[in-house]
Specification:
The chain has two domains: 121 residues, D-Maltodextrin-Binding Protein, domain 2 (3-Layer(aba) Sandwich); 103 residues, Periplasmic binding protein-like II (D-Maltodextrin-Binding Protein, domain 2, 3-Layer(aba) Sandwich). Helices cover 28% and strands 22% of the residues. Strands 3, 4, 5, 6, 7 and 15 form a six-stranded mixed β-sheet that branches. Helix 4 links the parallel strand 11 and strand 12. Helix 1 crosses helix 7. The longest helix has 18 residues.
Length: 279
Amino acid sequence: MAIGLLVAVGATGCFAEPVVAPAEDADNRPSRAPRKPLNPPPEARKALLLVSDEWMPYTGRQGGREGFVTELAKEALRRAGHEVRYEARPWNRCLADVGAGLADAVLCADPSEAPDLVFSREPIAVTKPTLFVHRGFTVGGRRWRYDGEASLEGLRLSVVDGYRYAEPIRRYVERHRGSSLVLPVRGEDPVERQVRALLAGRVDVFAQNELVVRWRLRGRLEASRIELAGRTPEGRLYVAFSPKRRDARDIAAAFDRELRVLWASGQAAAIERRYGLGP
C-alpha cells in the first residue's frame, strides 16, 4: 500500500501563497473527517451474509449450485427485501462468526448447538442422521448394525466437530472424547474427510446425514464399498441469525413469513426437485 501526502496550494498569477497550518491547540483545532469505526455494526453490511459448511445437497458450492437450503433461504430473504450472499466455512467457525456478528446467519443449525443465536420458528429442512460402515463390516463374526449406544462400544467412530448428534451418539462421543475411539473431523468439507477416514481404515463407522453421504458418493466407485448400518431419529434444522444485529428478530420473523409463502405456493418444492428431492 502506498501512502501519499496531499498538499493544498492557492495560486494568484504566477505565484502561490504558502499555506500555514493552524496550531493544534484546544481553541483552534483543524477540522478532520470522522474516522470510520474499525468494526462497523452488522447492519452496515449492504447484503446479509449467510454461512454454512459444505453439506450438499443442503448447503455448499458444487457445479454452480449452492444447495436447496441455501437457495430457499436466499429466496425467502430476498422476498423480505434483503440482498443476500453466501459463503462456505468450517462449521465451528460458522457458529462463532454468526455469534460475533461477523456473519448474519448460519444455515441448517440446531438450537442446541448455539442457543444464544436468534432462531427462525419455521424449520428449513429435516436431517436424517445415519451410521455408515465398510460393506460387510462385522463385529464378533456378525454383520454389525447400529442398535443404540451399547452397539458402538469399542468401535472407532468419526463425527463432525461441533455437530449436534442424537443422544446415544452424543453420550458415546462424550465418554470417549480424546481417545482413539472418537475421531472428530473439521474443515469446510468434513464429509469427504469422514469418507476417506473410513475407506483408509482409520475408523470403523461414521455418523452423517443420509442425503449428504448419498449425494457425495454419487457416481463414485467407492460407493460400493460403503453401506448404511442404522439410523437415529430425524431432527429439524433452522436458520439462526446473529444476536449482534439489533434487527435480528425482525429479520427472523420476516424470513418465517416468506418461507411459509414459498412452501404454500409450491416454489419451495420446486427448489427441492432441482436437487432430486421431495415426493
